[in-house]
Amino acid sequence: MRKMLSENGLGALLLWRSDELVMATGYQPLWGISVCLYPVIGMPVIYVPELEPTDQLPDGFKIKAFPWGRIDCRNPWDVLYKSIKEDLIKLGINDQPVTFLE
Predict the structure, then answer these.
(1) Cα separation values, 99 from 1, 16, 21, 42, Å
(2) 37: β partners
(3) Is the pLDDT of residue 45 over 90?
(4) Among candidates 10, 5, 8, 28, which has minimal Cα distance to 18?
C-alpha cells in the first residue's frame, strides 16, 4: 500500500468502506462507519465510533474513538473531521494529496 502511495505522490489514503478496512487492516467494523487514515509514512490510524466493540480492533494501528452514538454530541462528524485533520498535520501531510477509492 505504501509503495502505491509513494509512487503516485500521495500523502495518505482514507479507507471507509467495510471491505477496504477488512483488506487493509483485517478489521471488520460492526457499525460500518469507521475510517482508516493510511499514511505514506507513520502509523495508520483507525477512527471508530465510541460504541464500536473493542475486542476486534487490530494491533499495529493507532485507534481513536469519535462520539458517534452519544446523545451529548450534536455532530460527531465534526469531531471526526477535526481529528483526521490534526493527524494529517502531525504526520506532516500538508501539501501532499489525500485520496480515497471511488
Answers:
(1) 13, 11, 15, 17
(2) 14, 45
(3) yes
(4) 28
The CA-CA-CA angle for residues 65, 33, 96, to 5°, reads: 80
Cell of 64: 481513536
The stretch 33-61 carries a mean pLDDT of: 95
Longest Cα–Cα distance in the chain: 43
Cβ pair 15, 102 in contact under 8 A: no
Written as one string, the DSSP assignment of 58-96 is PTTSEEEEE-TT-TT-S-HHHHHHHHHHHHHHHTT-SSS
Structure confidence at residue 74 (pLDDT): 87
- The pTM score is 0.92
Cell of 1: 500500500
**pLDDT digits 0-9 by tens, 48-58:** 999 999 998 99
